[in-house]
Fold these 4 entries.
Entry 1:
Amino acid sequence: MLSQNLQGLKQPSSSAEEFLRNNELADLIQKQVFATILKNKLDMAESEMKIWIAGCSTGQEVYSLAILLKETIESMDENVEMDFKIYATDLDYDSVKIAGAGVYPDTAFENVPSGILNKYFDKKQDFYVVKKSIREHIIFAPHNIAKDPGFHHLDFISCRNVLHYFQPTQQQRIISSFHHSLNEDGYLFLGQSGSIGDSKELFRAINNKWKIYIMQEVGGRKRSKDAGLHAIQEDSQEEKELQFLNEELVQAKERISSLQVKLEDIYIKYEDKYETLKIDSYHPILFVKGLLQIIKKQEFYKEEYAVAMLKEMNKLEWAIENFLTDEQ
């Protein structure tokens, strides 16, 4: 298994740095969690696994988990067709942007085996960029787990060492929300400083050291405002939101298409200088496209996401205009 050799992305200030460097935890995640979920998926003839990383910081843990999962899938029967999707969110907007770019200095990979490094990252001068084979599975977006609706039909949630930042009442609401988000027998990973508190009827511990739990069905439990963050809206309100969302989606797609055309024109005319612009425009395009995917599937939608998308589009347009001005 990958966990026997994989070390970790070295990021001194990030709690995620420990993940890949800790063979015990990586081995546990692969063998007892990912492998079990994948086996159950195959038994039910399902072909996609969904993960939510709540509190993704600058992305090291996101890509670590994505690599572990992809390696686990590849270690199974070669005829297995299994896709996966990872929703990676954080309250801090700047952290989400860094994570979405997937660009890290070479000093962050001192302990990563060369085989894994070359397989999942491209070398760009003194930096490494996450390859498309991993990045295409991940959607990054700003999100407040204490306020915003969560995702649905998930197989695994990682909220590692985050809950202690919240008040006890908020913690219980968040745990309740996670319970609603998970599929039957879905897993919750809270890390050594995490706890489900008084919600022991919702989850059963499978590892007390790392605070890994499996979801428990609770008879008669209904989704309501008291039960968590997934209150069911009235049909009329859903229809209004859907109409507004579709209008915004059409406009956003048109604007993205226009920006991509401009980038292609610049590449043709200024190929030798294109890398300068590409560094500035790389993560805004990915970030905006990620938000579009979320909105399209109506996983969740808030006005702040539209604002975040607008900021990234404006930034990209500004970078293009400045580049063209300098070249004239």
Entry 2:
Amino acid sequence: MRNKVLVVDDEQSIVTLLQYNLEQTGFEVITAMDGETGRDLAEKEAPDIIILDLMLPKLDGMEVCKQLRQKKVLIPILMLTAKDEEFDKVLGLELGADDYLVKPFSPREVIARVKAILRRMQVTKDEYQAKEEEISEFIQIGDLKLAPEQYEAYFKGELLELTLKEFELLLYLAKNKGRVLTRDQLLSAVWNYDFAGDTRIVDVHISHLREKIERDSKKPTYIKTIRGLGYKLEGQKEND
């Protein structure tokens, strides 16, 4: 079965160029010319990946990304930005984008990024399946419970509102409970590529996780900062 790509861009020439090259590579392509239509198609068609322009009529790319993540639509998003457009990569990733690419770009580069993102998604799914017996249905650490197959996390029985990257970061910390993980390790493991060494992305996501699972985010008992090194997740499993 072919992977389905949703291309959302208000420049017809870019849509045509991407659609032609993606279809030649074997992808099924659907398109939208504004943010509202793109958002609706993402929910209705459930593509495998979204190529999303930043500047769009009706809803800009950041707002589309934000609304999809709020609705638990976890489809990976490759954000497109023009060279002279103001784009905060940390904010973009914080809102749920998985990668970004600056215009002008070659179709070959877009296809390579799309394939890389889809490959990472498949590897992640395969890892979850391979460890299913080892971790059983849930990972339980204190009042924190994670359901990897459902991409859900609970704290004191309440479902946490997490972005995809927040969940993946929390899951990676949980799988490595008690181990000190550097920011670079977390960046590589969760974002799967060297993001120009910008470890602020990790710190932003750690801060958000603490707000959701710590009684006092300034005195964390779960996600500890190891000065000069990185972070580690602590806590007692049930019946330990």
Entry 3:
Amino acid sequence: MNKNSTISLTAISLFASLTTVGAFIKIPLPYVPFTLQVLFVFLAGSLLGSKRGMQSQLLYVCIGLAGVPVFTQGAGIGYVLQPTFGYLIGFIAGAFVVGWMMERISNPKTYHFILANFAGLLVVYLIGVPYLYMALNTWLGVPSSWAHILMIGFVYSIAGDIVISVIAGFLATRLYKVFYTIRNY
């Protein structure tokens, strides 16, 4: 393995680890706790690019599904039945979208990062909220209306996630030059 591959794998592993840390910095809410995972998902996409950002989140999810307790409520293959698993799928897609958008901007400014984070946040919710609805109404047997699902899966956490998206934009602006060389490997 050459130096470039080692640096790339280290960066991917770093953001998978940071997402794990973010899972345990949480505010408990019904069904969907508010966590700092989104911060590291967006930083992964912004700083590593679409492919490596997505790989970092895929690694995070695979480690959890393999049984290492990195998720907010446990681990193991059975976690796919948790109502919040859709958000984890959304993290993978969200990191990709953020990275994809940032790869198209040659000299990104803070507002570029923030707008890309908002797009990534939209993707996370577009996957997470319907999965929450499906999980509660089918295999968990908790009849829930779309209004209830939108309240617990979107409204309770959107304000905090918007703030985190902005913070991630400012952090990415400061860290971009450091990670730019990694993105180009």
Entry 4:
Amino acid sequence: MSQPADLELASVSKKYGDTIAVEAINLKIKAGTYCCLLGPSGCGKSSTLRMIAGHELVSDGDIVLGPRVVNDDPPAKRGTAMMFQSYALFPHLSVLDNVAFSLKMRGETKAVRHERARAMLETVDMEAYAERLPAQLSGGQQQRVALARALVTEPSILLLDEPLSALDPFLRIRMRAELKRLQRDLGISFIHVTHSQEEAMALADLVVVMNNGVIEQSGSPRDVFNAPRTKFVAQFIGGHNVVPVDGGEISIRSDRLKIVDPSEPSSPTSLAGTVTGIEYQGSTVLLTLVTEQAGDISVTLPERSFFESPMETGEKVSVAWASEDAHALA
């Protein structure tokens, strides 16, 4: 396996004609990091990944991998490998030959490339399927083969473009654990594009939230969730309410709101509203309220506390929060 390497994006931009897809972003990813680029469609995360891979030209700025600026290097010379959303397996080749294909392009002998391909299939627990064709595999098995094919080149960084989006919810959770195990065992950086907040929180050491071609915030999952910097991050990351206050806005986690007696006097740390939705989620119940001051807000209550004092849609209620649970937004 190649040596893990630091990655730096220095004022990197991508333009398509007059359209700016990525605008002068700066990002440092330490070797051995699981990084998720998180954001809605069109935010610039996939363009960023493809520039790192060398599948898109950089319009401005530098991509530095280890000690080298790699802007002009072709994908095969960068020390990165990319796993595509579609997996892009060759349908006429066996699993073994799919994994070995890039080694064949490098001129390795059949014996060497098959030995390395079998070892990588063992790493992803797919050695028993080496002689099958891709059409004879499930979606999760195809994903493991695509992973093995990307990793057999011994990259310093693995790039993953929405790798879990085609899987059913149960398999998606299983494969999250597999990706995290692989990254930890290999010791290289994984850079993973996703629009799923849950996926990013579960996998990443470093979450990079993108919007309109810029980085809105980066940090550990816990830091980003507990201290969103902007209204966009608070709303996109989920589980937060944005409340206007004098001189700006604050965010409050939905699980930090408490239902209080609506007859109590109002305060700067309370809101009156009407219940518009009740969603049972097993261990919790999610209430949706409409308020005059903040529009729609959500409240997450423990299941037991909700059913001890159940509410109905249309009911007038008030919510309150502790001042230390309000986080100021930029």
